[in-house]
Amino acid sequence: MTSTAPAAPQATASSPVRTTTRRPAGGGWKRRAPLLPALLFTIVVTQVPFLLTVIYSFQSWNLVRPGSQHFVGFSNYVDVFADSQFRGAMLNTVLITVLCVLLSMAIGLGLALLLDRKFLGRSVVRTLLITPFLILPAAGALLWKTTMFDPTYGLLNFVLGGNTDWLSEFPLAAVMTQIIWQWTPFMTLLILAGLQAQSKEVLEAAQVDGAGRWRMFASITLPQLSRYLQLAALLGAIYIVNSFDAIYLMTQGGPGTASTNLPFYIYQRAFQGFDIGQSSAMGVIVVVLTLIVATFALRLMFRTFDVSGGVK
Amino acid sequence: MRTSLRGRLGGSALTLVTWLIAILFVFPLLWMLLTSFKTESAAYTDPPTLFFTPTLEQFAGILERGFLPYLGNSAFVTVMSTLAVLALGVPAAYALSISPIRQTSNALGFFLSTKMLPIVAAIIPLYVISQNVQLLDNVWALVILYTGMNLPLAVWMMRSFFLEVPKEMIEAGRIDGANLPTLLRRVILPVVAPGIAATALICVIFSWTEFFYAVNLTAARAGTVPVFLVGFITSEGLYWAQLSAAALMASLPVVIVGWFAQNHLVRGLSMGAVK
Questions:
Q1: What sign does the dihedral A292-A295-A300-A301 (CA atoms) show?
Q2: What ipTM was assigned to the predicted interfaces of this complex?
Q3: How confident is the model over A93-106, as pLDDT tens digits?
Q4: A298 with B209: Cβ contact below 8 A
Q5: How many helices (H) and strands (E) in chain A?
């Protein structure tokens, strides 16, 4: 983190642009006007529903019983914290997010290193590698469920032998495989961008000094990549924490609740149990937990997304 | 660098390995492509068949199952929300870059923070609101939500493109007495136009593939392409070849867009933080 990130000095150098160079006095509202529609729209679409979630979370409200809506204070929260399935879903969410982010980053780093050299058909290989990211996640999930993981006709058992029912014996691993497969291309592209941004002079100088390949990777490339790796981890986490398609389509959270994560569990409570109050309370808890993590993340992000200059 | 014979051999071995990994990686998709041209009985064989007489019957089959209305909904929602994102996002990005306001950093932070709110926390009120205003199973609900989903991303991304407009060019234009519309049209727009196109492509990809809102807020009437695919989880034991054809047709538009936009993909996904 404290490493020699190449973009940092440049970004700080350009920061005066925002603070000093051109700011004609006055005209505040005229300048703000172009921003306002986007700001208002985003507030209405993203913040209002969340406020309502908070309000609903203090109510007992079941959609199948009209007129059941009334204020109950914190009792939904008490129920949620007592619910062992909720804790299980939380644990699964953490597990899925952490493992998928780390593994897709590790594979992505490997692939990016392979792609960061000139070779025959490089652009074709890159195009192939990004394609899993472009396939509809819903299509990807169903494909893995059927043609790959099927116990009788699935290709995985054909290659490995045996007749393992992957989705019921290893539901979490199966779901994570699909998520990692889908997100690795994104990691690859992001890390590749980082590799290509590193200064060639430093690498050449190190080579002249007789540094070995591993040495160069560990003490030059990796530190220079750190900002990109942080960014990859944060963005990957934002998306993977919300994973729903793979679980909904591959395992339905099962068997039992073995592969239920928070988005799926809240969905189940809301749309199959019709329990608006409790699922809202869960939503609020998830948001609070996310905010705690995000506060740290945002601080990091703002170092990465240098507001004044952007990573160039 | 010297390229010794050993070095060159090592290089081609590495190239071979890279190719093999790439092919292995996309193998599920190659298999999907192959399966979509099989008959259902050829799709289920143990061992799997590699050679078969290709047929288009699966593609005809999914059209019969009523795929086109879903495709139409996806196209409508994607186009409308992307246009809305551009209409709202381009001026906002302008306000945050070329002509920065004092609260730039707060505003950018706010946009970024909305991406961190888990969508599950919003789905219940969105369901209730849509029901109350008769927007449940209505394409417009998705247009509004996808606009909200992509707008923060687009603002960040387009801001990074606007920041690339050379300040000197704008100053020079001002000195020559050009007014704002002229400046926009003559100086700024030509520079940022490719950026706006890239942003639009990213929005298209995200809207087309969105699943959570679509599955929870639409049904038969306003269902998008991912919702069509959900129909296969109940019958997945029966129609693999048809599923493959459906998955292929549903993904193809985005795959093509993505191939074209691949150079901008990273920038879009990283909200403009990385070129």
A1: positive
A2: 0.91
A3: 999 999 999 999 99
A4: no
A5: 18, 2
